[in-house]
Design brief:
disordered C terminus, alpha/beta, single chain
């Protein structure tokens, strides 16, 4: 059987920097590979929601010919053969894939990184949302989410914000089987029985496991240094 050709484009979303040497390096990278999208906002954790909206906007304006878009953090490993196989059977409209959190409790501990006050968000749980480490949407849903996002009050946790937008649109989400392996939680992923190759996304890996995943799952993973 002849292998099907699939085109995948990777772009990196960046905010601005006042460090001129760093900006020169960014410009040089862009000139070489045309793989950077940069907007005039501070690139910080507090701006992750704006950065996510920026990605939704870019796909809407420049990549609607694609069938699907993957949002992934820079510290995850993607198993592209698994993802491509999964998407070859996926519907082209209103499609999501990821690990869904349903009825996630709002954190009220003031010492926690994700603390949210009752005054800011009175509900005790969040709407269903896909974990922000990585998730997939059909591009029609990316566009619809972007249109909804620009009319929705910003929320500091970007994955929860996207969940709010999806709920606003009436989109129901659920966890996709074998989607994400978080080291320390899914220990059987690395049991030596090859189950880990079924997963689409790997998160919170040690350097050793990240290299193992890269070498085993990627056609480009030949680095041995």
């Amino acid at each position: 059987m002849k292998a099907r050709k699939v085109r995948v484009r990777t772009v990196f979303m960046l905010g601005s920097t006042s460090n001129h040497p760093v900006q020169r390096e960014i410009d040089q990278e862009y000139d070489l590979f045309r793989d950077i999208v940069q907007e005039d906002m501070i690139d910080s954790y507090q701006n992750l929601t704006r950065k996510t909206i920026m990605g939704l906007k870019w796909v809407t304006n420049h990549c609607r010919q694609a069938k699907f878009a993957i949002k992934a953090d820079d510290d995850v490993i993607l198993n592209m053969p698994r993802i491509i196989n999964m998407l070859s059977k996926a519907p082209l409209h209103n499609y999501t894939a990821g690990h869904a959190y349903v009825n996630a409790a709002v954190i009220r501990n003031k010492h926690d990184k994700f603390y949210t006050s009752k005054e800011f968000y009175p509900n005790s749980t969040y709407p269903p949302y896909l974990t922000g480490a990585a998730y997939i949407m059909s591009t029609d849903l990316v566009e619809a989410t972007y249109r909804t996002a620009v009319t929705t009050t910003l929320f500091p946790w970007e994955d929860v914000f996207v969940g709010m937008c999806l709920q606003k649109m009436g989109i129901k989400i659920k966890t996709t089987g074998y989607f994400i392996c978080v080291h320390g939680e899914n220990n059987f992923c690395y049991s030596g029985k090859e189950e880990w190759k079924l997963f689409a996304v790997f998160y919170n890996l040690s350097e050793k496991l990240m290299l193992q995943a890269w070498q085993s799952l990627s056609p480009y993973g030949t680095f041995t240094g």
